[in-house]
Amino acid sequence: MADEYFFALTLKGKSSEVWDPEAKGAEDYQGGHKLIIKQALLGPEATEGEVNVVQVEAMTWKDSVKIPVATLKAGGPNNQVLLDLSFPDPPVTFSLVQGNGPVHIIGHHLIGSPMEEFDEMDELEEEMIDDEEGEEGAEEEEEEDEPKTKKLKQQIAPRAKLRSKTTPRPKSKR
Asked: pLDDT confidence of 54, banded at 50, 70, 90?
């Protein structure tokens, strides 16, 4: 199961911040790391009327892309923005390409389970598969018994008809 942690960073001036937990020696987790960004907002000390643009550089399935993800303006309704950005592969670079900030970026850092936990899960899955195969085998045996029962009924039914024609029924006493 993945562990979830609060993530936050602050951009000021022309600064950049890189999210790369694997560079810090945290690569021994199956399922890796995932970053989910939920909000960007200006700090109260941001210059009124100044436009601040946050840019992200991240990997797509084939190459790197740089794109603005938030445009914020102090002193108005655009001083914060709700986001739903998911970055499954580090590294991710956040940059303030316009304005002086500060811009606070908030989200979640998801970490996959340690390798040992995945080994235990593999063993449990194998046991569950073995149990399911045992149950399926019992169901198949029941299905195999069904045609035998039908054959027996088909064989018995004509004999019962034959007996009823050849053997007289005893008369009931009333």
From this structure: very high
